[in-house]
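Bumping with the actual sequence this time:
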Amino acid sequence: MEFWDLLSAMGITAAATLGASWLLTEKLINNRLAKDLKQFDAKLTTAVNAAKAEVEAQYKERVELVLGDAAADRAYRSEARKRLYQALGPLRFQLLVAAAEWTNRVARVGLKPSGSYDMSLQGHFLRSTAYRLLRLLAIAELIERQSAFADFMVDPDMRTLLKFKRQAGQCLSSADVSMAHPNEDWTSQNQHVFSDVLSNLAATVIVKDAGTGIERVVRFDEFQRILDDDDLKKGLHPVPALMIGFTPSSRPILWLRMLALSQLCIGLLEVQGEPLGLEVQPIELDEMLRLSSDAFITANAKGYVGVLKVFRTAVTAKK
C-alpha cells in the first residue's frame, strides 16, 4: 500500500472515532443535566410545598384568631348590651319622660310670664317646677352611676344619655349660656348653680328603694316632705331659692338657663323619644327671649338664639 493511502485510511478512522467520542460525551452530559435537573426540580417542588404549607398554616392561624376574636367580641357585645339595657332601659324611659315634662313646664312659664303662678316656697307651681328640674338631674346621675357596672361603648344611644348629664350641667352652670352678661354674678348662686353642686343636688333626691334595694328618684310626695324639713331642705340649695318669685324678667339669666335646658331636652327627645309619642309644646326662642325684658339680652338676641340652639344638637354632636 502506498504511504499516502495509509495516511488517508488512518485519517478517516480517527475522524470517525473522534465523532463517536463527541456523541458519547454529549449524551453523558445531557443525561447528567437531566438527572441534576430532575433532582433540582424535586427539591424545588419540596421547598415550594413546604413554603406553601407554612403560609397556609400561618394564614389559617390568623383567620382562626380573627374569627375567634370576632366571635368573642360578638359574644361580649351581646352580653354587654343585655346588661346595659337591663340597667338603663327603665332609666332611659324615665329621663325621656322627665325631659318632656321639663320642656312643657318652661313653655307653660312662657305663656304667663308676668308672675301669674304662685312662685312661693309653699306654692305648688314652684314645688313642681323645682321637682321637674331636680328629677332630670337625678335620673342623669343614676344613669352615670351605671357606668361602673355596664359598658356604654356598645351602644351609641346609651352614650348619648351620659352626654346629656354633662350638657345639663353646662346649661345650669357655664358662661356659654350667659354670654358675658354684665349682671352675671359668679360669686353666688343667684342665677346659676355651681357645677360642683349639681351632683349633690341630684344625690339629695335619690333614695334606695326599701323593697328592691335599687336606687331611684324620690316621688313628688317624698320631695314635698324634703322641702318641709328645714334640715333636709338644705341639701336642695340653691334650687328652691332660685325659683322663689321667679319670672323671666326677674331673673333673666336664669331664664336663659331654663331655656337652654329645654333645648337640650328637645334634642334628646328628637333623637330617642319619637317611639314613645311624648308630646312637647313648641318653644319659640325669639319670643321667649323677649319675655326677659332685659336690654342686654334683647340687644344680643340673635347670638343668644344661636347659643341656645346649639344645646338642641349637643347630645348628638361628635365631640
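The C-alpha cells above came from a reply further down the thread. The chain has twelve helices and two strands.
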